[in-house]
Each structure stands twice: as C-alpha cells, then as structure tokens.
Specification:
about 650 residues, 9-stranded mixed β-sheet, 23 strands, HATPase_C_sf, ATP-binding, chaperone, Hsp90_fam
C-alpha cells in the first residue's frame, strides 16, 4: 500500500443508520452473508456484460466466481469476487455515503418500527445491505480494483464515525470484503461465522440459486493418523430457478430468489412463473412485491425486470420488457434467441421482445384479476400499494384498458371503508341512471364535504371518490365503462330529478330564473375576471354557491399538474353556481334590488365566490384581500 491514505467521515445519516443497524435492527444477523454474496454476484454479472460490450477490455470471464475465506484463529471471514470492481470514487460514493433520496425518512421509520421484521423491510427498500456487515463485525476491510484499471483501493472502518481509504499499487481485480468478526453470542443470535456448517447452511438457505459458483476451502481430518487435508468445495447448486419446472421449486426458494433480485426483505405478494415456446422461446419468473418501493413515483426509480440470454445476464432495469405502469414488478426474463451483445436501443425495436412484453403484461394483469376474485385480502394489499401506478396504464395502454378497468378499485360513497369496482357501481345504479358519477380531490374528506356532493347525497346517488393525481387524467382519457359515461359531478349542469319531479318544479324554476336574471347579470360583470358565467344551481341544497367547469374544461388540479411540469396554459374561467334557496343568496338579491350595485355588494359577491372556492379545496387568487374583506364584515357584526 502506498502512502496516499486519508481518513474521512461518514455522511451524518450514514452514521445514524450504522448505529441503528448495529444496535437495534436485526434479530436474524445471518442475512449479512446473503447481502455480501448478492453484491459479489452483481459485480460478476456486470463484468461479463462489460466484456461483451467492450472488446478492448482485457479481462478473463471464463471462471467468474465468489470465494468465501475463513481464518478461525484471526476470526475473519472474507467474501471475494473477481468481478467488475470499483474505483476510489465509486467506493466513496457507494459505501462512504448513502446517496439515496429519502434517507432521512428511512431513519425516522426505522426508529418508529416496532419489530425487527418491519425494520428489515425498511432496510430492503433502500438497498443498503453492505452495512449489514457491521452487525457481526467489529471492523470491515474492503479491497477492490476496477477491471481495466492498474491500481486498487483499500477501505477500512469500525462503523463508528469515520473510515480510512487508501490507494493500492497492487490488488487483484474484483472486490474482497473482510469482516473482523465479533465473538459468538447465542443470546444475541450471533453465530460462529467461521464454522463451515454455519456458512454452508446460510449459503444453501439464501444463495443456492446464485448463477456463479460460491467456493470455500475446507479442512478434512485425516483418518488413522493421517494429516489434515484441504479441499475446495462449491456451496451452491447454481441452478437457474426460472429454468426449473414450477412443481420442483419450493415457495421458500422463490421467496429467497425474489429477495436477491428485488433487494427486499419481505416475501413477495405473488409469484408468476411462465414459459414461452414456439418461434421465440423464453422463460420468465416475475414477482409482485408486497409493498411499494420508496422510489415508485421517482423519475429516477429503478425498474424491476432483468434480461438474460441463455443464462447470461445482459441488463438490469430492462424497460423494454415491462411498461412503466408496471415498473414495480420484479423478476427475470431469459430469452433463448437474442444476441448476447444486444443493446437497449435495439431491444426497443425488436419485434420478438415486443411480443414477449405483451405476453408478460397480460399475464401480470390476469394474475391481479385472479387475486381480486380469489384472494380479496391480497388484492386489497396490491391495490393499496400499487393502484396509483397501475391506473397510469389506463392513459396509454389501450390494448389492456378493458382488463385494467376490471381490476380497478376506488372509494365511493356507498361504503365508508370498503373500495368498489366499476362493475359493482354499475350493479347498484338507480333506475334511470345512465352515467357513472365521480369526484376528484386531495382526500376523501374534502370531496365528501364539497358543495358538489349535496344534490347527489340528497338523491341517494353513489359517487366514486378519486384522490390520486392520475385520476384527473385517466377518467378523461377513458370516458366510459360498459356503455356508461364517466361524469364528473363538478362539471356541466346537473339535473337528478325524475321526469315527474322536473315537471312539478318547472314553474318554480322559471320564476327563479326571472327573479334572479338581473342579479346574475350583475354578478357576472363583477366577477368577470374570475368566472365565465354566474347561473342558478340545481346541485346545491345547503351551500350558498359552488364553482363548476364546463364538460370539457380542465380541472383546477389538472391545471396545477401541467404548470408544475412547466407547461403554461391560458387561465380557465369556470362557472359560479348560486343556490336560490339559500338565505345569503336571497338576501343578496333583495339588497341588489333595493340598493343597486354598490361597493359593499360587490365585496359580498367576491366573498361568495371565495367561499365557494375554499369549500371545494381550491386556492384563492388574492388570499390577503379575501381575509381583509371578511375581517371588515365580521367587525361590523360586533
């Protein structure tokens, strides 16, 4: 080692995470070995891929393997690979810090977690498995050399607050992680990780499916006084799990494979094992997780499907195999007839890959549909975790739109606790009802308390309550279900009366139109900068006013979404509807008839419009002016 060594501090949040992991997280500390082996396997896959793509990279990929080395006297355990390795900057970036969004939120959740199982699931969401080594080691040493580089890097830390990093003039290609083990402690579930059978059992349980050999040199006592001998054994079977018949694979094997490729600590919600035969052969092993990853809605979030060709790893996060709305699906697709050096760009245009993608999507959606029918509790978990992402498919996946509509669930006014599907809504529609009514908003309480709901509540009409941002888009794009129009209760005119009720009320409505004609015209002028029209409402029963849009207007929420994406839109003026039966509105009409259009009445009209906006959860254009007018009015009443 040369003299270019320096001591650096861990990122503050990395120090906190280390302390939590070492002192309070895991009851099952054996998983540290699974994490180190998984990292080594990834490094081997990356080297093979780099060699395929860069013919000038002078590396030998004929014997890619992982080695476990034990020194019982020194109480050290080393996990070594001859994979891609790391540069010094990569070591600092990957290990010295936790350069992942949401780390502070992770730490908060870890502190609040009530049991070890929950804590393990949280750790799995952030891919910080390397730190698990500090659960069983007093200190950790890492040496590494990037393939194609001449020098290496050495990293050491006791996991307290600092780490030492130095350049190495000579180091083998790949990465070696050496753990200086703590003493065994049965009470703390800390096993003797220098024992051969302990290591064998852990590898068999967690890493038997790893595609590269995991080797260890073991001692064999001689017989009849002969000297002790050593031999190198392979600890894992290296059987590609996806290539084995489903009947030969135990559920526990599927679960451990999922945890390996998904970097998760929880079992998957559902396993999909399928094989495609004919003109294009492939095997696929897919998993639906039991919880959403922290980066599900991040533009930089990871995809979940890996592509192999003839058992050779080609690429991670293969977006050509799964649409964006199913980005949470994890798994492996092993194609038999692709080139080993196929690029991501070529994949996007490959006809066979597009055919595989169609089959995978249909299988995943069919699996969810079966969950909905046969396992309602598991389906409920799925929809709670991934429903908002799945609904994105309703916007652009027209081929599978009907299936997506079948598996869709939403809250509704029918039941305060249970979700409903569209078929259930249709089955409960009132006689003569032709449309499926829905409302969008930030949360259920805001929607249910909105003035737009009053007539529907009074008449007993069920309304779907849609609270995800994507709901604003897909309902417009889809338009209808089972021949029924999806109709927003906050758009257009609403008339829920029967023909008989309409006939009986026609005379009263005509009288109101005549009485309020002048007031409506005046208010339209006063509020011309904010609204397109002021009209009488047939949807209000208790509120004085509400703001609605025309049938084809953008909703305020959708306007905000477009502007947040940098798309400037012309201001959409909506319609103010007033309730002719409300005392405030009748009083305003009488005051206008008696006193004409004075400033005080104009301010009352502004307040009426502002309260209508606030009642639906909207934003005031000038909150300070609204507050000043309201305060002046309140002062006059005292």
């Amino acid at each position: 080692m040369n003299d270019r060594a320096e001591t650096l501090e861990f990122q503050a949040e990395a120090r906190q995470l280390l302390q939590l992991m070492v002192h309070s997280i895991y009851s099952n500390k054996d998983v540290f070995l699974r994490e180190l082996i998984s990292n080594a396997s990834d490094a081997l896959d990356k080297l093979r891929l780099a060699a395929l793509r860069d013919k000038d990279l002078a590396v030998d990929t004929d014997d890619l393997h992982i080695t476990i080395e034990v020194d019982r006297d020194a109480r050290t355990l080393t996990v070594r690979d001859n994979g891609i390795g790391m540069t010094r900057d990569e070591v600092v970036s990957v290990i010295g810090t936790i350069a992942k969004s949401g780390t502070a939120e992770l730490l908060r959740q870890l502190r609040e977690a009530q049991d070890a199982g929950a804590s393990q699931e949280l750790i799995g969401q952030f891919g910080v498995g390397f730190y698990a080594a500090f659960m069983v080691a007093d200190s950790v040493e890492l040496t590494t050399r990037r393939a194609g580089e001449s020098g290496g890097t050495r990293w050491e830390s006791s996991g307290e607050g600092t780490y030492t990093i130095a350049a190495l003039d000579d180091a083998p290609q790949g990465t070696a992680v050496t753990l200086h083990l703590k003493p065994a402690d049965a009470e703390d579930n800390l096993h003797d990780y220098t024992a051969e059978w302990t290591i064998r059992e852990i590898v068999k349980r967690y890493s038997d499916f790893i595609a590269h050999p995991i080797r260890m040199t073991v001692e064999r006592p001689g017989t009849d006084g002969a000297e002790t001998t050593t031999e190198t054994v392979t600890l894992n079977s290296m059987k590609a799990l996806w290539a084995r018949p489903r009947g030969e694979v135990e559920p526990a094997e599927y679960h451990e494979f999922y945890k390996h490729i998904g970097h998760d600590w929880a079992d998957p919600l559902e396993t999909i094992h399928m094989r495609g035969e004919g003109t294009f052969e492939y095997e696929a092993l897919l998993f639906i997780p039991s919880h959403a990853p922290i980066d599900l809605f991040s533009p930089q979030g990871r995809r979940g499907v890996q592509l192999y060709v003839k058992r050779v790893f080609i690429m991670d996060d293969c977006d050509a195999l799964m649409p964006n709305y199913l980005r949470f699906v994890k798994g492996v697709v092993d194609a038999h007839d692709l080139s080993l050096n196929i690029s991501r760009e070529i994949l996007q245009q490959d006809r066979q890959i597009r055919a595989v993608r169609r089959r995978l999507v249909k299988k995943v959606l069919a699996t969810v549909k079966d969950l909905k029918t046969e396992h309602p509790e598991r389906y409920r978990t799925f929809w709670t975790e991934f429903g908002a992402a799945v609904k994105e498919g309703l916007i652009d996946d027209t081929d599978n739109r009907d299936t997506l509509l079948e598996i869709l669930s939403a809250a509704s006014t029918h039941d305060p606790a249970e979700l409903t599907d569209l078929a259930g809504y249709v089955s409960r529609m009132k006689d003569g009802q032709s449309d499926i009514y829905y409302a969008t908003g930030e949360n259920r309480a805001t929607i249910e308390n909105s003035p737009h709901m009053e007539a529907f509540r009074a008449k007993g009409y069920e309304v779907l309550l849609l609270t995800d941002p994507v709901d604003e888009v897909w309902v417009e794009r889809v338009g209808s279900y089972d021949g029924r129009t999806l109709r927003s209760i906050a758009k257009g005119e609403v008339d829920l009366d029967t023909e008989e009720e309409r006939t009986e009320a026609e005379a009263e409505r005509e009288r109101q139109r005549t009485e309020y004609a002048d007031l409506l015209t005046w208010m339209g002028g006063v509020l011309a900068d904010s609204v397109r029209e002021v009209r009488l409402s047939s949807r209000l029963t208790t509120s004085p006013a509400c703001v609605v849009g025309d049938a084809h207007d953008l909703t305020p929420t959708l306007e905000k979404m477009y502007r947040a994406m940098g798309q400037e839109l012309p201001k959409v003026k909506r319609i103010l509807e007033i309730n002719p039966g409300h005392p405030l509105v009748t009083g305003l009409r009488k005051a206008y008839e008696q006193d004409g259009a004075n400033d005080s009445l104009a301010e009352t009209a502004e307040l009426l419009y502002g309260t209508a906006l606030l009642a639906e959860g909207g934003d005031l254009a000038d909150p300070s002016r609204f507050a000043r007018i309201l305060a002046d009015r309140l002062a006059r009443t005292l």
